[in-house]
Amino acid sequence: MNEIGRRDALGLFFGAGAALALSACSSDASSDETSAPTTTGGSPAELEAEARDLTLNLWAEPTTAEITPGVTTDVYSFRAEVINGDPASVTPSGSYLGPTLHVRTGQRVRITFENRLPEESIVHWHGLVVAQDQDGQPSDAVAPGATYEYDFVIDNPPGTYWYHPHPHGRTGEQVYKGLAGLLIIHGEEPLLPSGDNDIAVVLQDRTIGSDGQLRYVNTMHDQMAGFVGGTLVTNGVTDLTLDVRREPYRIRLLNGANSRTQYLTWSTGQPLTAIATDGTLLPGATDVEGLVLTPAQRTDLWVDFSTFESGQQLELLSSDTFIESGSMMGNGMGNQFGSDLDLDPSVAATFVVIDSESSPGSLPDSLGTAPSFGPTDAVNGDSPKQMILSTRRAAHWINDRQWEGREVSDIETVGANTVELWEFVNQSPMAHPIHLHGKSFLVTSRTWDDDSAAGSWAIIESGIIDTGLRDTVLVWPGQRIQIAVPFGDHRGYFPYHCHILEHEDSGMMRNFRVI
Ligand SMILES: [Cu+2]
After folding, report:
1. CATH number of the structural domain 3-186
2. 438 alpha carbon to ligand 1 midpoint, in Å?
3. 376-393 burial, b for 16+ CB within 10 Å, e for fewer?
4. Which residues does 3 contact at the CB level (< 8 Å), separation at least 6?
């Protein structure tokens, strides 16, 4: 891709006029390029006008990318083309990231996935409510050269989702090599910044060797702790800089890292204003001084740059939150020494306020609707199903079991269209972000079984947003959390797993069965 294309795309803007508002790195900030953008996504209103069936070809292939300026790196990438429907439904990322897919609530989507990789793969639509055979499960992985046909209707509310591969044992390395993309659902929403004031920021990390190639070590230690790259890579590049006008913006954050749970702050110390979590608008905007984002979680922010001076910069800072509160090789917690968490922020993205007229905005008083269910709707309100997360024999376990495909236990069998209370009890020395396929749930309680790690939790606790719906939830060592899960009407087998991809790949994954 040429330089202009790279610059247009890297901001992952969803509207027109992206070229005026973006530079890929700060050295380009003074550029006077005014070429018309070539990678626009269409505003929600435009997409609404275009609402109709969408047919795509989507493929994964080995290719190269420029993650660090001037350095060519071998990667895997998703690419796509619109066969039928609005051409703006696919917007290239300009990096190794897959194109952003724009769909609408209620829209029928047909996607032919072609595996052009030298290994098996399959695409999972993270957070989407779909039938088992549309979910992109490990058992549906297809061989090199083979295809998989998807045909489903978008059944989620508007919001921020993503897609990534899910072949068992290979997800971590495939995502690390570059296979991930955003999926934005448009539709009826309160009045929020749109068009080119609607930006996505995909947070990842990579270790790039002196030869310019990605390092994915995947040692026993990496499998146990999760692989953390040495450099923050945002929207597919190091040192991402985005130009913004003095106006309100919606910034859709996705943590697409393999294992790094990030604590995010603004360099000015101002609060982060969250408006949506994991694809669902919060009932009301929520200010936090720092924001915790686990792998796979999304949070949409609202930021008003109208009070900034032209030329002022706002940096999004990210700190790793890894703790190990006991022995990784031991039995359970083992120890009583919760390590303190030492936040060490690095710049994940820099927003540069360009010379423009100040145009303040305000948020709607109410955003999302309150969830239609709660813990009192649970069929097992008096006896939550208990899932024990543990670490022993150099492995991570769920109820002393690992991935067994379609072998499910009694408590992993649930009734369609019921709400159940599930309880995750973390007896492992590590934090685990737990994801349930196709289910948006409520976190109804967090208590301590063992408060050895309470000190480190206290450092990040204010950045945990449990008030909205989630599809991925962080369980700190020693914690017991309860979630209320509405299981919906799709029957069949669906994975639930730790979203530290090295944990998932090494077996910290199970199926539940909806009957
Ligand atoms: Cu885990």
Report:
1. 2.60.40.420
2. 19
3. eebeeeeebbebbbbbbe
4. none
Is residue 153 classed as helix, strand or coil in its secondary structure? Answer: strand
CA–centroid distance, residue 348 to ligand 1 (Å): 23
Threshold 0.70, pTM exceeds: yes
Same-fold call for 195-353 versus 375-514? yes
What is the predicted pLDDT for the residue at 44?
60
Tell me how far the alpha carbon of residue 478 lies from the centroid of ligand 1, in angstroms. 14
∠ CA 106-107-111, rounded to 5°: 140
Question: Tell me, what's the pLDDT at 286?
Answer: 96
In angstroms, the CA 279 to CA 158 distance is 7
Cα of 286 vs centre of ligand 1, distance in Å, is 27
What's the CA-to-centroid distance between 362 and ligand 1, angstroms? 39
Q: What is the rounded CA–CA span in Å between residue 272 and residue 275?
A: 10
* Fold type of domain 375-514: Immunoglobulin-like (2.60.40)
Separation of 389 CA from ligand 1 center, angstroms? 8
Neighbours of 34 (CB within 10 A): 7
> What is the whole-number distance in angstroms between the Cα of residue 435 and the centre of ligand 1?
10
Amino acid identity for residue 106 in this structure: G
Distance 390 CA to ligand 1 centre (A): 9
In this prediction, residue 6 carries a pLDDT of 44
pLDDT of residue 128: 98
Residue with tokens 């985005």: 242
What tokens appear for 473 in the block? 């939830």
Q: Is the dihedral of CA 474, 479, 482, 485 positive or negative?
A: positive
Domain 195-353 listed as CATH 2.60.40.420: yes
Burial classification of residue 70, based on how many CB atoms lie within 10 Å of its CB (0-12 exposed, 13-18 middle, 19 or more buried): exposed
- Say how many Å lie between the CA of residue 208 and the centre of ligand 1: 24
Q: What pLDDT is recorded for position 9?
A: 53
Burial string for 2-24 (b: 16+ CB within 10 Å, else e) reads eebbbbbbbbbbbbbebbbbbbb
CA of 155 to the centre of ligand 1 (A): 29
Cα(391) to ligand 1 centroid in Å equals 9
How many Å lie between the centroid of ligand 1 and the Cα of residue 475?
A: 9
Distance 406 CA to ligand 1 centre (A): 21
* pLDDT < 50: residue spans in the chain: 1-8, 16-41, 49-50, 329-337
- How far is it, in rounded angstroms, from Cα 359 to Cα 308? 11
User: How is the chain split into domains, by residue range?
Assistant: 3-186, 195-353, 375-514
AA identity, residue 289 = E
Structure tokens at 12: 């992952």
User: What pLDDT sits at residue 385?
Assistant: 98
User: Considering only CA atoms, which of 94, 103, 113 is closest in space to residue 18?
Assistant: 94
Distance 499 CA to ligand 1 centre (A): 6
Distance 397 CA to ligand 1 centre (A): 9
